[in-house]
Amino acid sequence: MSLEASTAKPNLDAEGQFSLALEPLESVKMPATNHSDTFSSDQPLNSHDLSPGLLSESLWVSMSNGEQLHLRHFMPSKLAEADKPAERIFMLHGEAECGRIFYDNSGQGLAGYLATLGYEVFVADLGGRGRSLGSEGRVTELTTRQIITEAIPRLLRAIELHNNDTDSQDSAHLVSNKATIWIGHGFGGVLLSAAWARLSSAQRSASRMVFFGSRRRLQSSHRWARHFSKLFLHPMIAKLIDWHQAFPAKFLRLGSSDENTDWYHCYAKWMNEEQWLDPEDNFDYGLALKSHPVPPTLHFAGKADTVFADIQDIRGFIDELGPHDARLLVLGNIGETTQQYDHLSMLIHPSAENDVFSFLDQWLLEQAGYPLRVEEDVLSPSDGNDAFAEAKPLSETDAVEPLAAASYLEEDDSQNESASSSEETIILCA
Questions:
Q1: How many CB atoms neighbour CB 340 within 10 A?
Q2: Which domain range does residue 290 map to?
Q3: Which CA distances in Å does 354 have to 44, 48, 350, 381, 385?
Q4: d(CA 244, CA 92)
Q5: Are 270 and 299 in contact, with CB atoms under 8 Å apart?
Q6: How far, CA to CA in Å, does 360 sit from each of 111, 130, 369?
Q7: pLDDT bracket for residue 336 (50, 70, 90)
Q8: Which 8-state DSSP code applies to residue 400?
Q9: What is the pTM of this model?
Q10: For the chain, how many structural domains are there in total?
């Protein structure tokens, strides 16, 4: 279950609601902060290629059933810009994955990238995966509803109450002790949105959200999506999963972590039904989100992600989130190759830092009202086939289309007709 052994001992807080256990601070070597240079894991690194290590630590948040959920905490880099207040970011992984989708030991990943820019980042491992404790040898016992109504609120409260004792970040320099930016991958975006619908106004701390390949319903007309849906929802599959008492994602090579049967039945229900209802108490998430829509949200879609989060399904999810400021970025080719970004590569491919993360950086600054970083950070190198017809900040871009196959652009135009009126679509072909 755990990537690494842990001997941390939990300590109940004053209210007995959750506990925190800290490991000694670790120094994680990060790629150089010159984001115009691509960091590739298959290239040797010299000492001058690395910035001073970021400090990180592990925290554990206890659940009512005794499980301990892991939070990896990355302190902001000392080399980050000091002229603007820091913000805290909460990251939640998706189905059959753990928090490692956002970072690794070498320093690559979105969490480390944002920490080098001055953000304070907290990455969660839900139960039964990563470095979470209490479910050794078996999947988590937490239901989807418990994750939404208990786990996510406790994780957010742990972030709020956590004091940074290092000199890399003065707590008085924070915009807020709360996580003001929520980032989700895959089903993690659905869980964060569902939690937003049920949280009190005081608990809705996010001023911006970012979703990588997140969708609820599976409605894509792509043939592989249809095959996946037919197989996943087959009654015999459901019986086998109930008998096995887990969804064997690792065995099926669909992810790094198995899921429990509650997750399977909830996921199958939500991907197949028009109305977004909680399986346990029939809470209507869609109705709640119409009354309390999410804050401005940036959605990433991979052009090659035709099964787990097709562009059509992401557009449907955007509509479900209520009337909000939504921006959809469609990722095309990876670097100079014909390989296409998909559900995982948009976060873990070495080229993602330049092709994907830089756009997120610019959007966060734009939404916070800060001046954009150097414009070259969000532009492809000039080689006669630039992704942009002309250089524009994202705030001035109504629609950007790259030099791509006409058939794909026509398909996207037809999908635009049913898109939310508040959605802005930018198609990127890095």
A1: 17
A2: 11-221+282-428
A3: 19, 20, 9, 10, 17
A4: 26
A5: no
A6: 12, 25, 14
A7: confident
A8: B
A9: 0.77
A10: 1
Answer yes or no: is pLDDT of 90 > 80.
Answer: yes
* CATH number of the domain residue 322 falls in: 3.40.50.1820
The Cα 395–Cα 298 span in angstroms is 13
Per-residue CA distances from 137 to 2, 96, 353 (Å): 9, 16, 35
Q: Answer whether residue 256 is part of any domain.
A: no
3-state secondary structure of 54: strand
User: Which of helix, strand or coil describes residue 197?
Assistant: helix
Domain contains 236: no
- C-alpha separations of 73 from 25, 164, 365 in Å: 10, 10, 22
Indicate whether 244 belongs to any domain: no
Between 232 and 162, residue with greater pLDDT: 162
pLDDT in tens, 111-128: 999 999 999 999 999 999
pLDDT digits (tens, 9 = 90+) for 310-332: 999 999 999 999 999 999 999 99
Per-residue exposure over 208-221, b if at least 16 CB sit within 10 Å of its own CB, e if not: bbbbbbbbbbbbbe
Handedness of CA 179, 185, 187, 190 (dihedral sign): positive
Contact 223, 229 (CB under 8 A): no
Burial of 247 (0-12, 13-18, 19+ CB in 10 A): buried
Residue 255 lies in a domain: no
Q: Determine the Cα–Cα distance for residues 362 and 373; give it in Å rounded to an integer.
A: 7
- Distance between CA 330 and CA 311 in Å, rounded? 8
What is the rounded distance in angstroms from the CA atom of residue 2 to the CA atom of residue 131?
5
In the DSSP assignment, the letter for residue 76 is P
C-alpha atoms less than 13 angstroms from C-alpha of 325 in its C-beta half-sphere: 9
Q: Phi, psi (5° rounding) for residue 376?
A: -60, -20
pLDDT (tens digit per residue) in 253-289: 888 888 889 998 999 999 999 999 999 999 999 999 9
Q: Is 38 helix (H, G, I), strand (E, B) or coil?
A: coil
Cα distance between residue 133 and residue 153, in whole Å = 18
What pLDDT, in 10s, does the model give residues 345-376? 999 999 999 999 999 999 999 998 877 665 43
